[in-house]
Design a protein that fits this description.
The protein is α/β, with parallel strands linked by helices and 426 residues long. It is built from 17 helices and ten strands. α2 runs parallel beside α3, α7 packs across α8 and α14 crosses α16. The longest helix is centred in the N-terminal third of the chain and has 23 residues.
């Protein structure tokens, strides 16, 4: 079984990829899209690199999205990547073609492309070895997704991938709109790593003055206070995260000088997993970093380094299967702070319809805020759909809600356990 199946790639591209991975003991085989699907059904679990413009059938009716969906129905875990052409926008492809792990581009320089290939080949090998040892079942229960609630297949895939990344030390870029849970994804990577014995270090750039950004991150020489004349550095986040994980949110807020310093730190590792004493770097952005590179506000070299492993999280409205599990998750968390004699209720049909109808521009963060508001307004009584402060769907009125069953007081632990199990895909 080859390590990588290259599906419908141009011969020159396939030859280039083969030359990059062969020296490291990995193999590549070229196949067509129909052959790839047939082999997958027969049990082949090679990592897949699909031409972004592949078709399952000669008539071109079944697009690449259909092919990926068919593959994911068979296996949620095998690494699947797209090979974009020069006119494609990688960020758009990640969101348009659900179920892929990333996009590789012909314009990547050889060193960047090789780093991407080798990292994912290693992950694929680890996965196949795990499967051979019988690693199956409900990963939402098997892996420790602490404090994570979801019900969509996409979220299950992305958190499962994040957990597998915990075993490695290369940098990760998490992208998605504000409030979708990028910090929670970063924490999941840390939790499933050997670094979890040390605290997760979160550098919130939005809460840091631009003038103090470099000081907070890298530390600067202390001046003017007694023994500080020795030239010792103030402890920055990078030092605080030694042998742990440093998560930098909204990395685009770093100035170009700080970006270059961070790039220098990452480049010293030469593409290999870093020593255990060095911090694992995870960054996130709600901004289109490619556009920032074009505008000259973000380092192209740093983007290439970070985008080797990109975990995209779409807006909550594009993951409707996550809405109700998130709502229950926040309700349970907030209820834990209430008195034992509080008479709270489950979300009835009208409440659920109201939540599912909303577009959630604030994403998961807004769900938490709406649940907190509903509990406050309920004041110990049953929750009604109007308590969320959202407009109810036209077909439903609060007074038409069905009678709800009181939430049992002694079963919070059991409900919490059930909540963390994976629900059916959206």
């Amino acid at each position: 079984m080859p390590d990588l199946l290259a599906v419908d790639l141009e011969p020159t591209s396939a030859s280039q990829l083969q030359s990059l991975i062969r020296p490291y003991g990995f193999s590549l085989e070229e196949v067509s899209a129909p052959e790839c699907l047939a082999r997958f059904r027969d049990g082949d679990r090679s990592a897949l690199l699909l031409n972004a413009h592949s078709h399952i059938d000669p008539a071109g009716v079944e697009t690449i999205g259909s092919l990926v969906a068919s593959l994911r129905e068979i296996d949620l875990e095998v690494p699947i990547f797209l090979w974009a052409d020069r006119n494609d926008d990688p960020d758009n492809l990640v969101f348009e073609v659900r179920g892929i792990d990333g996009v590789w581009c012909p314009q990547d320089d050889a060193k960047t492309l090789q780093a991407k290939l080798l990292c994912w080949m290693r992950l694929g090998k680890i996965q196949r070895e795990s499967l051979a040892e019988g690693f199956r079942g409900d990963e939402a229960a098997t892996l420790q997704f602490r404090g994570v609630a979801y019900g969509s297949a996409y979220s299950h895939e992305i958190f499962s991938l994040a957990a597998r990344l915990g075993a490695h030390s290369f940098p990760v870029l998490i992208t998605g709109p504000e409030g979708v849970g990028k910090t929670k994804l970063a924490e999941t990577i840390h939790t499933h790593s050997a670094r979890n014995r040390r605290p997760f270090v979160h550098f919130e750039t939005a809460k840091c003055s631009p003038l103090k950004m470099n000081e907070e991150l890298f530390g600067i020489p202390r001046q003017g206070i007694g023994s500080d004349k020795s030239g010792q550095k103030a402890i920055g986040k990078l030092v605080a995260a030694q042998a742990s994980t440093l998560y930098i949110d909204e990395i685009v807020r770093l100035d170009l000088d700080a970006q270059e310093q961070l790039l220098g730190l990452l480049s010293q590792r030469d593409g290999d997993p870093s020593p255990s004493a060095a911090p694992r770097i995870i960054v996130s952005s709600a901004t289109n970093l490619q556009a920032a590179v074009t505008a000259g506000t973000f380092s192209a070299a740093l983007y290439e380094c970070l985008s080797t492993f990109m975990l995209p999280i779409p807006a909550l409205k594009d993951r409707p299967g996550d809405i109700l599990p998130l709502a229950e998750h926040f309700l349970l968390d907030f209820m834990d702070t209430l008195a034992d004699d509080s008479d709270m209720n489950v979300l009835d049909e009208a409440c659920q319809a109201t939540l599912l109808e909303h577009d959630w521009p604030g994403n998961a963060k807004e769900v938490g805020e709406r649940m907190r508001r509903a509990l406050f307004v309920a004041n110990g009584q049953r929750i009604q759909s109007s308590f969320f402060g959202l407009q109810a769907p036209p077909s439903l009125r609060p007074e038409a809600s069905k009678t709800v069953v009181a939430r049992p007081k002694r079963n919070v632990g059991a409900r919490r356990s059930r909540m963390h199990k994976t629900a059916s895909g959206c």
